[in-house]
Structures are given as C-alpha cells and as structure tokens.
Input
Amino acid sequence: MIDEYTDPVAVCNVNDLQECEMKPFEFNENTKVLVVKQRDQIKAIGNKCTHYGAPLHTGVLGDGRVRCPWHGACFSIDTGDIEDFPGLDSLPCYKVDVQPDGQVMVRAKRKDLEKARRLKDMVKRDPANQECYVIVGGGPAGAVCAETLRQEGFTGRIVMICKETHLPYDRVKLTKAANTQIETIQFRKPEFYEEYGIETLMGVSATNMNCEEKTLNLSNQTSLKYDKIFIATGCTASKPPIRGSDLKGVMVVREYDDVLEINKLIKPEANLVCLGSSFIALEAAQAWTKKVKSTTLISRTEYPLMASFGPLIGERVLRLFRDQGVNCVMDSGITEIIGNSDNQVTEVVLKDGTKLPCDILIMGTGSKFNTEFLKGSGLPLNANGSIDTDLYLKTLVDDVYVGGDIANAPVYSYNQERVAIGHYQLAQYHGRLAALNMVGKSPEELRSVPFFFTMLFGKGFRYSGYGAYSDVVIEGDLENLKFVAYFIDEQDKVVGVASCGRDPIVAQFAELQSQGKSLYRKDLQEDASDPVAWTKKLKVLGKCI
Output
C-alpha cells in the first residue's frame, strides 16, 4: 500500500526563523510551504491563499493563525482550516518533525501536492437521520452554511433554496470581470452537492413562512417542514423612482443574469451611463468602459466614495476615472430617462437640464432587503427589513438563524453593536458561524471584523473596520495611489483603515481588531520615523503581527 504521506524533506533549520515569524521554503520544485514559529513550536501549512492565491508569507501572523494580505481570509496554523473569509477551501497542513540538529523535516499528503487547497472532511447524508435544516438563499452565506453543516457532522437533510437558476457563485467577480462565464465563478460543481446530499432548489424563492408551524412555502407551489432554518436572502438592487426607469436598457447589477443582459447591449458604438458613486457604479463603469463609445458616471456627490473614504481619496479616485476616459458629472443626478418608440433608452436628462445620449443606463444607487416573505411569519422585522440576531446569529424565534446582508448582527470590532453590513466576506463568515451554532456541539460567538476590497482600473483598494469618523489621516503617497488612510472618530479612535498599494496594512489592522485591541491617533504619532510602527506593538504584547 502506498504511504499517504511523502518521505520527509528538509526545508529549513529551526534557527532560520525568529519567534513569531513565518517564511516560505521550498518543498519541491512545484510546492512552497509556509513554515511558522510560534511559542517555540514549528508548524507548516500551504503558502497560497485559497481565495485568489495571495502569497501568505506577505500577510499577517496572528495568534495561531495567518491572515491573507489581500482580502483578509484567515487560516489556522495548526490545521490549515479556513477560519475567516473570503474563500471556501482550507490550506494543506504538513507533518513537521524537528531533528536534534535543528533540521525541520516536512512530510506532505501526496494528494495535497496536486493542488494548493484542501476540502475539509465532510460527512454525507444519512437517510436514517430525519432532521431537516433549510437554508434560504444561495449566496455566499448560504453556500458556506451548507458546507459547514456537513463538515461539522450533520447527516440530516439539507435543502438550499436558490432564487437564481445558478448554483452559488462568486458574486464579487460580476463587475470586476464582466465577461466571466458562470462555470468559472461557481463555488462548486453540481456533483459536489450531489455527493454530499445537499439539495439545491434552483430558480425557487420563499413566498411565506410560519415560525410556529416551522413551515416554509415556496414559489414552486411546494412547502418544507424544517427543524432549523438559516435565512440569508440578501438584497435586491433597486432603481430610484425616476421617470423612464422601466425602459429597456435601464439595468442594475446584482446577479449573473444582469451581467448577461448588459453584455448583450454593450457595443462599440454604445453610450454607457452609470448612475451613482458607490463601489457598484464605479466597478460597472470600469468594467465596460473600454468596450463602448463613451462612459459617463453621474453622481449627486462632489466626489465618488465620499461616504466611505471622504473627499481627499474621493477626489483622487475621480481623477483616476477621468484619466481612464470616463466622463464624470458630479454634484448632479438624473431627473428623467427618455426612450424611443421601442421603449429603449436613448437619453438621460440631468439636474441642470442637460441631455446626454444613453444606450445603456446602469443604476448603482441602492438595494433593499429580501425579507418581504417574512411579514406575518412571527419573526420580528425591523422597519428597514433587516432582522436582529444575537451573538450566535439566533433570532428571537427558536431554531431560526439569520446571516448575510439582512442580519442586523453584533460586530465585534464595533463594540458588538448591531449593524447590517452588506460585505461578501462577512456573509461567508455568518454562514460558517450559523452552521456551527445550528449543529450546536459548542456555541460560538460572533467575532466579526468587516473587511472590504475592490479593484478600480488595476488599483486594489482595501478597507477594514466600521463606524462614523470625523477625521481622515492619510499617510504615504495619495497621488501615486500608495497610501494608508486612518478614519478617526471624535474620541480619537481609529474606526477604519483603508489602503491602496500598501498591503498588508489593512490586514494588520483587521488582525488587531480581531484580537480585541484598539488603535488611537496617538499611536500613529509616536514614531515620526516610522508611521506604521503601531503594527510592531503586538509582538511586545505576546501576539504576533
């Protein structure tokens, strides 16, 4: 029988690493391992983040885990298991033996050498287990919840209800790579869900629910009886009440089919207009601008991203877009959308009466929670449609859990105050945590640290944190988009950090928040020769960063 593991390979000496240090070493010509020294123990895991392949040795070493420098995913250094997101898969974990002479010998599972990611062990459906867990929503939260239930040993029936006709996919890529085919962005293939007995109802939505009877009625005229339910129905992109918003060619971008429809309209002679200054509107403009005759971004604010990043960064982003040929009309808005006899949009009218030619209008102006079906269910809804949860993502109704965009849930880095945050990373984390608590082996509390990212004309912007700010301190070179921005509240606390071209600084701030620590204005001013000296403090406090 062939050994599951390879022969030992000497990758380094124990003295090659300082305490609380990680380095990549070559295992063979095709594989590098990340060797970590922490608390005088040596661990070895994969070196490529399973999300988008970032080299983890350039990331952040926390207490027992490593955090991706690009998007903040976290992996255990003991097991390689993914603990925070984005991403789905875990890292390979290698056997380590330190020789008397200090040589670090590593053995790898042969199957782990074939790819840089690992699927956690999962149980399969046991027909003898009659329990039924229902997941409403086929987005990032629902997909992770389904997998985690099987990883945690739940063998009962799992039914995932997906409003779209596609299996769960990486929605982030819709406006970052507009020509992406659905097969390349789906989290898993159909065979995966079949193998692990996860039922997927495609093109089906929930119509109403009865918490007392534990029943859920569906749009396909069927109903489900559940033992526990996880609701993660997300949001629907909304159009503002502008005359003509129902014309053909007036689009939103939320789902894969939206992108398909937009791509049908995109032509070299077309005039594209994007309404809004949110990340969605900006990403849409940059995704299609090279494929049309003209692109115009229309915003009611003076600069894009004003609410998120403030005027200084907003002004620089504005120039980035104008440098790329995007016509930006700020401090404006659309008062009317004009169409032809075929009800196809042809023009938009601005606040000052100016008319612009328009063949495609993409609205990135907001969204609403998909919780209408819960009215009268017995589950309390907030006025805006969100749903309150506790630290375990449980609602006020027994056996009902909520996650993702619709969850008004405690945020650890925001003093565990409840907030509804529409971040992809947070939705995946909610899915994992809800599943852990549904299985109920040992309750696990939310320790949410929001992390957001976007790519605009090849420039990667990261942000971690949450909260109202009264001042922005920018360190670095904003002009050349190599900067760090600290968002500071009235108590001089740093509530958020953004960066461009300065990884892993935002991941470092995220890790600091996850350890329950805070950053203040005075911490940024202590060492004038090193504006990021604050990142070194955690070593002194016994944790690594």
Observations:
- The longest helix spans residues 306-323.
